[in-house]
Structure formats: structure tokens, C-alpha cells
Amino acid sequence: MKERPREEVRRLAEFLGCPFTAEEEEKGVVEDVLKLCSFEGLSGLEVNRSGKLASGEENRVFFRRGVVGDWRNYLDQEMAARFDRIAEEKFQASGLVL
């Protein structure tokens, strides 16, 4: 996503069954989606700065630094491997390749 964001957003739209039309591409809709879904855009929303889940957890805990590989500061190798196994199991039927 970080290396080729435009291509990945297009692929995601196709996967979801709503690919961008040529007209949308010309109007810059892909760039608009990227801007709206960017780390800066999402972490800066008021709801994500001050909102809370029904459980009382603050939304801001879902945002760290937005840096690729930052997970290494939070997970050791065993935890990462367990997370990978769980993700593969949960997404197995989706067709996504992790």
C-alpha cells in the first residue's frame, strides 16, 4: 500500500466489485480516496481524536505513527507469527493473499 498506493486502491476497488470508471479516474477520484483514507486524514478526524467505542476504549489508540514496520516495536517474533497464523486462518476463504 505504501509503495504503490494508487494501484492498490484500484485493486481493492475491483476486489470489492466497484472498480473506478475512466471518468472517475480522470476526475481524480482515486487521489481523493487516497487523501480521505490516508493516515493523516483518518487520524486527524475529530471522532478519532476524542471519540470512544461502546466499550469505553478511546479511538485514538488505533493510531500509532503510521510507519511501515513499526509493529516490531510492539510485537516480538512469537507474537508476530501467532498474529500471521490467525490472519491467514481468518482470511483463508476471502481469496486474499497475505
Give the % helix: 40-55%
Kindly report how far apart the N and C termini lie.
Answer: 13 Å
Mean of residue pLDDT? 90
Number of domains: 2
Integer-rounded radius of gyration: 17 Å
**Percent in strands:** under 5%
**SSE run:** HHHHHH
Tally of alpha and pi helices? 6
How can the largest sheet be summarized? none
Provide the low-confidence segments as ranges. Answer: none
Shape: globular
- Annotation, overall tally of beta strands: 0
**Content-based structural category:** mainly alpha
Task: Summarize the entry for a quick read.
With 98 residues, the chain is mainly α. It is 51% helix and 0% strand.
What does this protein structure show overall?
51% of the residues lie in helices and 0% in strands. The chain has helices at residues 5-15, 22-27, 29-36, 39-43, 46-50, 77-91. The protein has two domains: 1-63, no CATH class; 67-98. Helix 1 packs across helix 3. It is globular and about 45 Å long. The two termini are 13 Å apart. With 98 residues, the protein is mainly α. It contains six helices and no strands. The mean pLDDT is 90. Keywords: Transferase. One of its GO terms (molecular function) is sulfotransferase activity.
